[in-house]
Write a structure and sequence with these properties.
Helix content: 40-55%
Oligomer: single chain
Radius of gyration: 23 Å
Largest sheet: 10 strands, mixed
Distance between the termini: 41 Å
Mean pLDDT: 86
CATH topology of the largest domain: D-Maltodextrin-Binding Protein, domain 2
Length: 299
């Protein structure tokens, strides 16, 4: 518990990670401070920082956790059984349309491993990796942190989606400047999808800020629902459209002269120790993804 508070420098975020109430976390930290007969945190209104004693305790806590992970790996290698917990973070498109298929196959082979998956936008997945809240991530957006290792996984194409009978459907491929003439349903700031679309439209001569953005939504499903409801057009992964194409409720189009294909990446901390369970998941997912577009995965 101390390690979580020290890592986040936040009682609230530590409580969220540990699935406890904030008062319970605060109480345990006070008990620890009483045990050592010294303050481990300085409280400054809405923020906290480690005291000199707190820095020492945090260093030992890091070493204890690392020894625990190494012990778990050593015992696992002795027994020949891969077990443990793998914490995976995925950005929205991957978490909703790619990872469930991989996890199903992984569980069949490694049924002693518990996988805990969280779905966030790319920015939040990277932050959780930095905080060591997750072991490995899969994202579609850009990563700027030099301490995060990226490895290509697969490719994903983004398409314009229109409601039935929308004027843009007169084009087999939509002229890029036509997009700014109609209401546009966008993903939120921090979304990998939005970052990739912004980059490609900019290269084609259309500034993302010149779109008539009427809604910013936090998931692919929300964007599809808004477009189906006639609020505007949007752009989503081709992998997310199988049901809607089959039902005829949304019509996809490419942009003329613009191929918006992005690379899905595995991401992890460069220096972080990986348990046997985490390493097994990482290698299994890489093999599963090798040479396939995200839309090639069977239902």
């Amino acid at each position: 518990m101390f390690h979580a508070v020290a890592k986040h420098l936040s009682f609230t975020r530590a409580a969220e990670e540990l699935y406890l109430t904030q008062p319970a976390v605060t109480f345990q930290i006070r008990q620890l401070e009483e045990h050592f007969d010294t303050r481990l945190f300085d409280r400054h209104h809405n923020r906290i920082s480690l005291t000199e004693a707190g820095v020492v305790v945090f260093d030992y806590a890091e070493r204890i956790l690392e020894l625990y992970r190494e012990t778990e790996k050593a015992i696992s290698e002795m027994t020949g059984v891969t077990r443990g917990v793998v914490k995976v973070g995925a950005s929205t498109t991957i978490g909703e349309y790619l990872l469930p298929r991989i996890l199903s196959d992984y569980h069949e082979r490694f049924n002693d491993v518990q996988v805990q998956m969280t779905i966030d936008n790319t920015r939040t997945v990277i932050r959780k990796l930095e905080d060591a809240t997750i072991d490995v991530g899969m994202v579609e957006g850009p990563v700027k942190n030099k301490n995060i290792h990226r490895e290509p996984c697969t490719e994903d194409e983004l398409l314009v989606i229109c409601p039935v009978d929308h004027p843009l459907l007169e084009f087999d491929e939509i002229p890029v400047q036509k997009l700014k003439e109609y209401p546009f349903v966008s993903r939120e700031e921090g979304s990998g999808t939005r970052a990739v679309i912004t980059e490609h439209l900019g290269k084609a001569g259309l500034n993302y800020d010149h779109l008539d953005i009427v809604l910013e939504l936090g998931s692919t499903e929300a964007v599809k629902g808004a477009v189906e409801g006639g609020i505007g057009v949007g752009m989503v992964s081709s992998a997310s459209l199988r049901k809607e194409i089959k039902l005829g409720s949304l019509i996809p189009r490419r942009i003329a002269g613009v191929s918006i294909t992005r690379t899905i990446h595995f991401v992890h901390q460069k220096q972080k120790f990986r348990s046997k369970a985490v390493e097994a998941f990482y290698q299994f997912a890489k093999e599963r993804c090798a040479g396939q577009m995200i839309d090639d995965f069977p239902l």
